[in-house]
Amino acid sequence: MKKLMLGNEAIARGLYEAGVSVVSSYPGTPSTEITEFSAKYDELRCEWAPNEKVATEVAFGASLAGHRAACAMKHVGLNVAADPLFTLSYTGVRGGLVIFVADDPAMHSSQNEQDSRNYAIASKVPMVEPSDSAEARDYVKIAFDLSEKYDTPVLYRICTRTAHSQSIVDTADRVEKAPVPYEKQPAKYIMMPGYAKLKHPVVEARTDALADYAETTPLNRVEGDSAELGIITSGICYQYVKEIFGEKDAKILKIGLHNPLPSKLILDFAASVKRLVVIEELDGIIERHCKTLGLKVEGHDLFPKVGEYSQQLIAQKMERPLPGYIAPSADLPARPPVMCSGCPHRGLFYTLAKNKVTVLGDIGCYTLGAQKPLNAIDSVLCMGASVSGLHGFNKADPSNASHTVAVIGDSTFMHSGMTGLCNIAYNGTNSTVIILDNSITGMTGHQQNPTTGYNIKGDPATKIDLEALCHALGIERVRVVDPYDLDACDKAIKEELAVDEPSVIISRRPCVLLKYVKTNPPLHVDADKCRACKRCMKLGCPSLSFRDGKAHVDSTLCTGCGVCAQLCAFDAICADK
C-alpha cells in the first residue's frame, strides 16, 4: 500500500516491517518522531530512556538476547552514546542493532552543527543515509541486514529535512525475525583488555570487507550520462541536485553508504567526467576522501561549510537557473522564539533577573529565558552542564554562591543532572540548583519521562519523587515553589542563596500546553488605572503589548496565569467580573 509519510514515520515503518523487537530512545529534535511513530506498532516494544547512553545500552541488551533492536537520538545525543558505541564496534552484535542519529544543519533546535559521519569513521562502523521517505523505510531493512551479515552495529544518519519532509512510501507486511539463541561468548562480549586486543584486528578486517561491499552496493549508484559535469552527493542534497540538473546536465554519484566510502567506484566516476564537484552539507567527508584518492575536486571551496543547503544555494553556486523559484520577501517581521503565554518558567526567570542572579542554564524550552526582556541566563552548554558547571563556578570562587544558581528541567535532570547534583553534595560547594519541573519533556513536544508517572504509551509507570531523590543524593535543603507565585519565588531564592550549604528549589507547575491543564479566563487591562509604567512588559509575555500608550492583553493568547497582575502596582490588570 502506498502512503505519504514523513521520513521519521517511514523509518518507524521500516522498523516494524524489519521485525524489530525493541526500540529505546531519548527524545531530541529532529529524531523524536521515529520513536513516537514506532510506539504505534504493538509489535515493537518501545520506551523513552533517561538518556541516549542508556537507550544504546538497552538496544545492546536486546541484541545480546538475539533480537533486532534500535535506538534513536539527535546528533548531540550521539555524544552521550559514544561510550557504548565505540565498544559495540568491538563486540559486534547477536541480533541486528541500528542506531539512528539525526543531524541538524542550520541548528534549528540545537546548540551546534555536528556532522555524525565523523562518529562512523572514528568508531569504525558502517553508516547509511537515505534521501527521501521511501529510502528511509528501505534503508532500515538494509541496515539490519548489514548489521547481522557483518556483525556490527550500524549508524543510520538523517537530517532535519529528510526527517520532516514527506514522500510516497510503498509499505509491506512485517516479517518476523526469529531471535538468535543466546550462548555465552566471553571473548566476544566481555571487553576487558585481553579480549579487546583480539577484537581490534577483527574490526579492521570487517572494515576491509565493508570497503569491498561499498564498491558494488546499490546504496551507491550512478545516474545520468553527462561527460562534462560529475556531482558526488548524498542525503537531502541529492534531492536538491536532482531538482536543478537533468539527466543530460550532470552525471550523479549518489552515496548511500557513508562509511566506508568506495574508492574504485569514485575513481571510475571521476574518470568519466571533465569536472568533479562534491555537494555535501557540513564537513567535507566525501571531499576529503576524493582528495586522498588524488582527485581534483571542487567542494567546500565552492559551497559553505556551515548551515543548510538549498536548491537556490546550489543553483547559485553552480551558476544554474532555478525555474519557478520565488524569492521570499525581504521585509518579513522577525519572530524570535519566546516562552508561551502562561509558561510556568516565566515568573521564576523574572524573579532571578530582578534579583540580578547569575544563572547557569541548561538544554530545554526554558533556555528561552535568555531572550529579551528577561535576559535571565548566563550560559548554556549541554545536557546537565548547568549543575556541574555551577559546582565549578562556585568551587573556583566561593563568593559566587551568594548570587549564582543553576536551572535545569525535570527531564534534563533525569538525563544527566543527577550526577552533577551528587557531585555538589559529595564535594561540598554551597550551590543552589533550581529544577524547573513542568511535568513533561517540553522542548521536543511533550514526551513522558521518569518523573511524570507515565510511559511512552501513556500507561501508568513508576514516578520518580524528585524531592526524595535530591535528599538521597545528599541534599538536605529541598523546597518546592509555585512559579506563578512571585513572592514565594523571591523568598525561596533569597533564602537558599543566603544559607551556607547546598540546596535545591523545585519550581513546580505543569506546562500550560498539556491537555489536562485547565487555564483561567483571560485577564484584561483597565485603561483608566494603567499608568503606562511598562513594568508588566518586563515579563516578555506574548499576551502583553503596549498600544495607544496603555498596556494591552491579547485575550486569544492569555491563559489567566496572573503573573503580570502581581507586577502591576495600580491594579490595572484584572480578571473579568
What do these coordinates show?
This protein is of the alpha/beta class and about 575 residues long. The chain has four domains: about 220 residues, Thiamin diphosphate (ThDP)-binding fold, Pyr/PP domains (Rossmann fold, 3-Layer(aba) Sandwich); about 100 residues, Rossmann fold; about 160 residues, Rossmann fold (3-Layer(aba) Sandwich), CATH 3.40.50; about 55 residues, Alpha-Beta Plaits (2-Layer Sandwich). Helices cover about 35% and strands about 20% of the residues. It has 19 helices and 22 strands. The strands form six sheets. Strands 3-2-4-5-7-6-12 form a seven-stranded mixed sheet, sandwiched between helices. The protein has a five-stranded parallel sheet with strand order 14-15-16-18-17, with helices on both faces. Helix 3 packs parallel to helix 4 and helix 14 crosses helix 18. The longest helix has 24 residues. The mean pLDDT is about 95.
Compose a concise summary of this entry.
The protein has 19 helices and 22 strands. It is of the alpha/beta class. The longest helix is centred in the middle third of the chain and has 24 residues, at 193-216.
Number of E strands: 22
> What class, by secondary structure content?
alpha/beta
Helical stretch tally: 19
Radius of gyration: 27 Å
- Largest pleated sheet: 7 strands, mixed
Q: In what range is the share of β-strand residues?
A: 15-25%
Summarize model confidence as the mean pLDDT: 96
> What is the fold named in CATH at topology level of the largest domain?
Rossmann fold
Give the distance, in angstroms, between the N- and C-terminal Cα atoms: 57 Å
Outline type = globular
Biggest sheet strand order reads 3-2-4-5-7-6-12
What are the segments in which pLDDT stays under 50 over at least 5 consecutive residues? none
> What would CATH call the class of the largest domain?
Alpha Beta
- Oligomeric form of this entry? single chain
CATH superfamily of the largest domain: Thiamin diphosphate (ThDP)-binding fold, Pyr/PP domains
- The helical percent reads 25-40%
CATH architecture of the largest domain: 3-Layer(aba) Sandwich
